[in-house]
Amino acid sequence: MSAYRTGDPLDRRRFLTAAALRGATVVGSGVIGATALGALDADAAFAAPLRSLDPAVADATFVEGRITGIDGGLLAVAGSWGTYARVRVTAATSVWKVRATTADAIATGDGLYARGVPMPDGTLAADAVWVNIVHLHTTVRGIEKTRLHLAHGSHEIVGHVLADTTSVSYSGAAPTADLSRLRIGQDAQVLGAWRPSDDSVELVRVSVGPGAGHHR
Amino acid sequence: MSPAVTVAVDLAAPLLALVLGTAGAGKFFGRGGPRSASRTALARLLGGGDRAARALRGLGALELLLCAALLALPPSVVTGGAATALGAGFLGYLGYARRAAPGASCGCTAGDDGPVGGRAVIRAAAVLAGGVAVALARHPWWIVVPSHPAAASGAVLAALAGAVALAPDRWRLPWRRLRLRLTGHPLDGTRAATRVPVAATVELLERSLAWQSAAPLVRSALLDHWDDDGWRILQYSGVHGGGGGARPVVVLFALDAAASRDGVREPAVRVSVLDADTGEAVALTA
What we know:
The complex is a heterodimer. By secondary structure, chain A is mainly β. Chain A contains two helices and 14 strands, in the order ααββββββββββββββ. In chain A, the strands form two sheets. In chain A, strands 2-3-4-8-7 form a five-stranded mixed barrel. Chain A has a five-stranded mixed beta barrel with strand order 9-10-11-14-13. β1 of chain A pairs antiparallel with β4 of chain B.
């Protein structure tokens, strides 16, 4: 188990790959929403926390707000409604900021959604945090090579296209890296990461056409 | 004044009439009513959407009247002064709107829902400059146009280009669509993309039987992912067992990196669970 223990991430991934491929193969489609805690990709940040089916698992709790301070793995979060919370991030916490990343990517001033379990000391032991995540209903007003111009109500938003990340779901189909079927004037449901520095959005997934945003 | 400038100044009246005519017609005949008027900063200034709607309609009538005067009467200090005053009023109102109700629509042109931006300010300044030009003009446009056809068509083209550049966003859409049709889709380069986004793999996983059986262990969202030799590995963290025997685990799924739910109905997923502390395999069922 030395490779698992070493700090080198490449060695660690190699070890985990071998372990993953040794795993049992399960073939078949499942019931959508089978998890006790709801969908676990970025959409889950906006799903209502479901009650766990397992009585041994404490109910998941959500925290939301702006990060006002970072002390090691402890985040101070000022909620939008005047609440205050401390969120603990560990190696077992998933961190989403545009993509799956590590706690190093979190910065003071970022917005945060966190799901976790309340601890006796008042902190929230986070299972998952989503940083600067936004989910917006928009209309495509302009298309350029590196960005989309989007209208959200009366606000104009610049959406940055990320070459290795941005995907589009057309009419409820599986997300694809093919962005060439986007059209000006389309309604678009946008999942992305807000960029506090210039108030723009980095586009992660754009859903257009009938069934956009309702394919779950 | 040089002859070219004189001609340009003399042509200001019909161009300004065009601007005021379109804006005025939009406000006067627009069907937005009190609801869209209540989104303007004018509603804040006058205290109510109904009053703002009436004021917008009145302003539209004034603009149409001025448009008719600019077209029918020879240029004079009176029409020029009226347009200058209107432009100055617009500028003052925009300055107020930006300070008092940032984010509110300006109501400048009917149906324009966008907040007060640079284009609205430039439009108001253009009206002001046009009014000054009309006040300075010496000849009616219907005499100048036949004697300077080249200058007149040049002025019309310049005015059209200016109108497109300064038009509210909503009016620019047909123009942008046309441009994309002529120059090609800017994102055409991604048409041939064969990479399956991670989001598509996660979606396939969440609809699989493997996910259904392993999900009760999983606590985190997607923790890490990477591709290796045609496989895409998705890593989650979780808790195995309950009560005193609970221990942190790593939950790994391996899927075909090229598969998404569009092509695969029964996904084959390899699942393994490791003890997070030792890295030893743990049976999936507790």
